[in-house]
């Protein structure tokens, strides 16, 4: 790490008179974040300031879309108006690196060594690094799991261990709905998000683009099978439309039996439905076949330092503490369920402890155990275009606008090719 000019406080640290490195004078940095992610960052500040009392971190919760829009506008204006640190969702990050390569600092210049990089799984770093430049440091990951209501499943005689395939999921959903009037098996944001398609296709090793980001793969057989299976769930009535807020409300109201999401959703359920402690559990996502993969990733973020920051060293000091230490990562996991990407954090005792809210289940052992099996998925610089095209195609397909899933995704692939100039993989 590059240090600022030394003052009396820093000199004292070097001489052993202080327990932690210090800056020449108090430094204040600002970080843009959103929702539970912002809250989890705030949970690291007490521990951080014990080690670095001269750095004040202001975490500003702007909301997800606001962070994206304001960052995009600021980078277009040459970086004016950016804070010291910005949060990015992994799958959208490449939009910024490709359009504005000079807007954010190469973290390698601040101390992000190859040894530190190796502490994170490859699938988390894929979208954050371009050549020899590391634009952001991995934060949380989103290993997918099924969060389920124990009581609803038990009343229907459905044991989670029996739900191995998506066909099992459909059959279980029908039994659960019959045994629990007014309860639906699961929910998906069919209009505003591509979440279910991205989760299931990633599980099957497919996605909008190839892992080298050089071709379009949305109409490959695994992706076609994914869209077909989602429609089967929708047509069976076990998967109904709901936006984010409606899902949270359904969790609390007891009108949904399961939610499929990244591991970070643990904190969403626990903090928004505290009175339902003991009623929720977790199991691995089903697959296309009993012996198929049962791992995928949805969401997860990273932190980057703006090139215009006047306090890069202080910003790096905070990022490296919050994301690069077991202490920082476990603080966020405990408080708000932000799932560590840092591999060493998975070995901390808390991860294997039974969690009271989840009926004594050691949910983090189950969720984090899938991390090594997750296949990397590229958002690429064209994520926004591709996602918009997919969502429109999905809506049209569900309404009967295509004869089958293959025709729908062939059309989506052609539209994405026209929008991006990338070839369609053969």
Rg, please? 22 Å
Structural class by SSE content: alpha/beta
Biggest sheet layout: 5 strands, mixed
Quaternary = single chain
Summed up, the domain count is: 2
| CATH second-level architecture of the largest domain | 3-Layer(aba) Sandwich
Please report the number of helical segments. 18
Which of globular, elongated, flat, extended, rod-shaped describes the shape?
A: globular
> How much is the average pLDDT?
91
CATH topology of the largest domain: D-Maltodextrin-Binding Protein, domain 2
Largest sheet: spatial strand order: 2-1-3-12-6
Describe, in plain words, how this protein is organized in 3D.
This protein has 426 residues and is α/β, with parallel strands linked by helices. The chain folds into two domains: 183 residues, D-Maltodextrin-Binding Protein, domain 2 (3-Layer(aba) Sandwich), CATH 3.40.190.10; 216 residues, Periplasmic binding protein-like II (D-Maltodextrin-Binding Protein, domain 2). The chain has 18 helices and twelve strands. The strands form four sheets. Strands 2-1-3-12-6 form a five-stranded mixed β-sheet. A three-stranded antiparallel β-sheet has the order 10-7-11. Strands 4-5 form a two-stranded antiparallel ribbon. A hairpin with a 2-residue loop joins strand 4 and strand 5. Helix 10 crosses helix 11 and helix 14 packs across helix 15. It is globular. It starts with 7 loop residues before the first helix and ends in a 6-residue tail after the last helix. The N terminus is likely disordered.
């Amino acid at each position: 790490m590059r240090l600022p000019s030394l003052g009396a406080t820093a000199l004292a640290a070097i001489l052993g008179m202080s327990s932690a490195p210090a800056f020449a004078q108090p430094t204040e940095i600002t970080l843009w974040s959103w929702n539970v992610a912002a809250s989890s960052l705030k949970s690291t500040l007490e521990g951080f300031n014990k080690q670095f009392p001269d750095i004040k971190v202001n975490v500003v919760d702007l909301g997800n879309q606001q962070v994206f829009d304001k960052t995009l506008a600021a980078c277009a204006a040459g970086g004016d108006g950016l804070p010291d640190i910005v949060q990015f969702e992994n799958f959208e990050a490449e939009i910024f690196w490709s359009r504005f390569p000079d807007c954010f600092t190469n973290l390698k210049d601040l101390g992000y060594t190859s040894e530190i990089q190796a502490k994170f799984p490859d699938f988390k770093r894929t979208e954050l690094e371009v050549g020899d430049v590391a634009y952001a440091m991995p934060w949380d990951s989103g290993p997918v799991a099924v969060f389920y209501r124990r009581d609803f499943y038990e009343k229907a005689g459905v044991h989670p261990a029996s739900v191995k395939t998506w066909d099992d999921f459909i059959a279980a959903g029908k039994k659960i709905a019959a045994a629990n009037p007014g309860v639906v098996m699961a929910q998906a944001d069919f209009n505003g998000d591509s979440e279910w398609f991205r989760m299931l296709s990633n599980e099957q090793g497919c996605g909008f683009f190839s892992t080298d980001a050089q071709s379009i793969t949305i109409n490959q057989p695994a992706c076609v099978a994914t869209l077909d299976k989602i429609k089967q769930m929708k047509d069976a009535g076990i998967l109904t439309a709901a936006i984010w807020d409606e899902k949270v409300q359904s969790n609390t109201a007891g009108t949904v039996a399961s939610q499929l999401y990244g591991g970070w959703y643990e904190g969403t359920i626990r903090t928004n439905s505290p009175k339902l402690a003991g009623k929720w559990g977790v199991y691995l996502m089903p697959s296309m076949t009993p012996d198929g993969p049962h791992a995928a990733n949805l969401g997860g973020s990273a932190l980057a330092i703006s090139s215009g920051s006047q306090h890069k060293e202080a910003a790096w000091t905070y990022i490296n503490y919050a994301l690069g230490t077991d202490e920082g990562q476990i603080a966020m996991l405990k408080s708000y369920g932000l799932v560590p990407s840092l591999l060493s954090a998975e070995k901390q005792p808390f991860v294997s402890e039974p969690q009271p809210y989840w009926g004594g289940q050691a949910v983090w052992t189950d969720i984090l155990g899938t991390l090594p099996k997750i296949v990397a998925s590229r958002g690429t610089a064209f994520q926004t275009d591709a996602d918009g095209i997919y969502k429109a195609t999905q809506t049209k397909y569900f309404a009967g606008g295509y004869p089958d899933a293959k025709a729908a995704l062939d059309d989506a692939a052609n539209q994405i090719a026209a929008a991006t100039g990338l070839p369609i993989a053969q």
